[in-house]
Amino acid sequence: MKNKYVTLVETQQIESIVKYKVKEKDKQGNEVEKELTRHIDDFQIGDTVDVHLRILEGAKERVQIFSGVVISRRGEGGRSMFTVRRIVQSEGVERVFPLHSPRIARVEVKRTGRVRRAKLYYLRDRVGKATRLRERKKGGVTVPGAPGSDGKAGKGAAAAAPEQATS
Fold first, then answer.
1. Who contacts 109 (Cβ-Cβ below 8 Å, separation ≥6)?
2. Is the dihedral of CA 60, 80, 87, 136 positive or negative?
3. HSE of 73, CA atoms in CB hemisphere, 13 A
């Protein structure tokens, strides 16, 4: 259980991580400090995402992309984590990322998945095409013949109208 002070501190810490500074060398060899912003799309369980990770190799910094399906999210505020699973050379690889880590440069949603569970651990036992998830549609779902869906009457009123016209 969190109180309002802990929540206030966490939100300030999260906002400070949104922008980060990177040191690079320009063409003349001088060190230049750039300020970059993090872009994290809203994602849910079952979405296929690309996680762009900043990796330091000596004095150089590069971005590595880890793409896969989000199988779980846990925690809240600054402690929130998410797990991404992908298949590499017919072997399942899972990686847990802190959502507000300064190492994460970007999280891109490539495909949305429609699921009915909070944790997709059952995907660990599946192989091949059995691991596919249905696509989540954008916008609302319209049911044909439902009253109020398109301004017309439902099935019952539509079926009663032809009987009156024939009599």
1. 41, 42, 43, 47, 48, 49
2. negative
3. 16
Tokens of 84: 């991404």
Across 129-157, average pLDDT: 64
- Percentage helix, strand, coil for the chain under 3-state DSSP, each rounded to 5: 25, 40, 35
Collect all residues with Cβ–Cβ distance below 8 Å to 93 and sequence separation of at least 6.
68, 85, 86, 87
User: Considering the domain 39-128, what is its CATH architecture?
Assistant: Roll (2.30)
pTM of the model: 0.67
Residues 20-44 pLDDT 10s: 666 677 778 787 777 777 778 789 9
Distance CA 143, CA 56 (A): 52
10: which residues sit within 8 A by CB, 6+ positions away? 77, 78
Cα separation of the two ends of the chain: 69
Share the mean pLDDT of the chain. Answer: 79
Tokens 């019952």, residue?
Answer: 156
Q: Where are the domains of the chain?
A: 39-128
DSSP 8-state class, residue 68: E
